[in-house]
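Whether sequence alone determines local backbone shape is best considered at the level of individual chains. When preparing material for the folding task, we compiled for one chain both its residues and its backbone structure tokens. The sequence in question and its structure tokens are set out directly beneath this paragraph.
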Amino acid sequence: MKYTFIILFGLSVHLCFSQTIKPAQIDSLIDGIKKTVLENYVLTDKANLISYSLTARHYAGISSIDSLTKKLNDDLFKLSDDKHLFLQYRPEVAENLIKQKDIHKEQDKKEKKEHYGFEQADVIGNNIGYIKLKYFADATHAQKAVLKYTSRLKNTSAIIFDLRENFGGSGTMIQLLAGIFLPTDQEEILKINYKTQDDVTLKSTQIDPTQKITHQPIYILVSSQTFSAGEAFTLIMKNRGRATIIGESTAGAGNVAGPYPVTSQFVLTVPVGIIVDPKTNVGWEHTGVTPDITVSADLAMDKAIELITSGTK
């Protein structure tokens, strides 16, 4: 299976604070993590380091699932310096993955209820369009709804994308939004270099010309918490001169990741591909996306409005 960015099954938190785990289960968990990273982690050197370094004895005496998960995630990050590599206690997801069931169905229902991540899509003062996007939902079934949201902004003088709290998501939504807001049809926007599969180049979605929005200036608000797919969309728009980026350097999470069951209870999200913008052949892993105008995240909105109302780009 090819993943484009991270599967958002982490949107709902599974409470595990009072649950315990036995030493034999820890042994199995460590073995599962090591096997999974060796087989799937796109960064081979780091996969080897993790496999060599993780041993069950380091977690002896830990009986709480919550404490164990936190400790393992701390260690995985220290070894990999990769924000897309993390462990979750998700028995229901692990079971579905083991049985090869579709894990997207419940996610699709949830995303639809949440308006596909669009917390707001309205015209605010001074005829400014404002989109606050919490995450990038899977756009497979979302195009009609998204076009309805963006159609509200067709006659605005400028558009602000607020991605300051955006925690990533699906490449399909990036493709859809790029199709709406970039003037070029089916433009190559991202290239993914997979470890175990053929490389993939993502193109912007083909959009009816009457539904494209390509003339208004766009301002994207970002913070140090803007993550993964949020960073990708920002970089695409910046590199093509389509948006002015305002705020803080972003998180620097630039790998494609997918979920793998490492036991019947735990799921490990593993980076399986490296992403670059084909326009520059450069990604944003570790570096993040540098804004055009650097201000603290809480001042980014005011700065964007100031630039729009003054006519400054």
Q: What stands out?
A: DSSP finds nine helices and eleven strands in the chain. The domain at 9-98 is CATH 3.30.750 (Transcription Regulator spoIIAA). The CA atoms of residues 104 and 135 lie 16 Å apart.
